[in-house]
């Protein structure tokens, strides 16, 4: 208002140049006093997450109020420079173990990857793929493909498929907690049950690994059914940030619990099956020749009298009109195959591929499953 008055009165009063200069200085000084007297705006609140600390003395379960928890910052990432340098430039001198998860719309080759969560021991990074785009994902590619960065994830098949087909990323060196859970159960003498895959909610609830309830997960599932584009909304809501964080903040704790249980042989099986899970829905024309090699049998196991049998992934093409026979009435045919051999059998389902069957397991068991499935396709 003072500046406006000065301009309006400048011509009629014919003020001298020195008076004009003094008035300008006076107005400027008053403006500066006003600026200096106003306090700076408060910084945006720092979001934090509570993560459990691995401890040799802590029990298998804990509560949110337990002293086992510590606070770490949550960072929203849209630029590569916001990520730790040791993640962007993986090296054998600074090997990492991180938690990993992905959120999106119809997460698969044809869906939309929206957020990639990375859990470190001292921070959680939510990579906003919608805002950061190809640039930020290209920056993450070396670490996601590196053998120097162990990625702890729960059921990596569709995450790997989305990363591969949408960004050309070949997910590697994965410890899949769903696989690890099953192999620990077998290691402890429990019989394998076909299709008995632990959910992430179930894993969290198991007192041997976490002992935490996760009722919010079902709330989010309901919300996703009502609003399938939930993860595309921007800016990220507090609910989106909290949900994405909850899916990774326990992974490193669970990883430590599982590592303490796994024998050397079982650990090798976890990593090789994790690699095959990563391959599972990522079909290409060169039999994965451009992917990182499968984990070799460790030297201390290769020399034993009973050399562990290698595992493979087999993909069976199902001719048009034959998938109904493979599955059978109410799933009876495929369940019979699963019960007859010690191999995992996966279908593409609604997300596809719809005309293939994926078999993972020891070579002999996979070949047995192949023969049984081919038998269901034969005309009688």
From TrEMBL:
This is 3'-5' exonuclease domain-containing protein-like. It holds the Pfam family DNA_pol_A_exo1. One of its GO terms (biological process) is nucleobase-containing compound metabolic process. The keyword Calcium does not apply. It comes from Rhynchospora pubera. PANTHER family: EGALITARIAN, ISOFORM B (PTHR46814:SF1). Residues 30-62 are annotated as: Disordered. Residues 310-378 form the K Homology domain. Keywords: Exonuclease, Hydrolase, Nuclease, RNA-binding. Residues 74-263 form the 3'-5' exonuclease domain.
